[in-house]
Amino acid sequence: MRITFFGAAREVGRSCIMVESRNTRILLDAGVKLGEKDEYPLIEDSELKHIDGIVITHAHLDHCGYLPHVFSHGYEGKVYATKPTEELINIAASDYMRISKPQGIGKGAIPKMMKHYVQLEYHQQVPLKDMKIKLVPAGHILGSAMVEVTEQNGNAALYTGDINLKTTRLLDPAYTEYLKAKTLITETTYGGNNDTFPAEHTVLSELVKTIKETIARGGKVIVPSFAVGRAQEVLFVLDDYMRSGILPKVPIYIDGSIDRVMRIYRHNVINCKSELQKRILMSDEDPFKSVNFHFVEGRQERSKIMKSPESAIVVTTSGMLKGGPIVHYLKALSGREEDKLILVGYQAHGTPGREIQEGKKDVEFDGKKLDIKMKVETYHLSAHADRPQLMKLIGEIKGLENVFAVHGEETKIMEMTDSLKKNYYAKAPVLKETFEA
Question: Which of 20, 35, 25 lies closest to 409 in space, CA to CA?
């Protein structure tokens, strides 16, 4: 089996990895790298027509955002993913096309992409020419999967995509029983030596405290979030604490594509954890349609929220402040010291979110510099595995010999790789590097 890394090598973003046998070429993910300037996988367009299949692990842009380009430049094959992932890709890709306006992509790319989906169930092994693919629950977001690729001789590689090994309010953790592979390609977003997450109750206690303080002084809390996954977890946390009386009753406004994503989560609740399914079946109150949630319908309502003197919580896209409704809120509220911006997700280098997170006070949006006076705080609500969880996963894979560390900042990848070299052939590949495994 040959493995080539067209993206995510010593970086976060543009996940795109080719695995090939003598007769078959499969792409694992086709993502973009979001930053000051968006970057794309380093696979030549001329190669796309020779790909036999693309498997998408989940519907975040750094894993699926390159699909419209692929279908505009010669790819005619299938896209394999779970049903929720395919439905979420349609939203993510459409929003990316509208906000980022990438060059060289025809208007028919997304409709064409949608016609080439093949929906896979978890644990269903499917032949793809002389190889077989299987999806295993990854616990990251709705529909997310690890991918197992097996050659005819039984040689298997496992690709984690993005993985979460703890239970969340919506999902069970990744399925790790009976994993067996000679080669592992693992994400290392939080694979650094010091990447151990604090206890969730500690983080949530601090988060609730700061929200209460902001509301008490008449301020608004703005939470930029990825529309898929992070937003739902944040909203469920806020709703639970508001229902219990720990948080005061103020409107929770939901803006951007989060509304559409919530509907997809609700329609695919069979893929969420059983406790959530029972809560919907046995309760009069649907947690996806809480009375505390108010969906923002257009610019006029958004303007009213921003001008209102009343306290509120706003959960909106985009998570890295690269575009979408969050820009409008920042333009209107960034100069108000009583308001607060709470970051809950990873902020990539080169994004406005990273600049603000690191303390920059004059940040440019749409050619206009904003003087950031509102308070800015970060609370770690990750849907990724941390270093101890990654090491535990690696140790439990039967027959493992090779480990390729990807999808992390270079220092974290190198630290992770160094720690694995005692027991495995461990590598931190560079872009366009190829290995035999």
Answer: 35
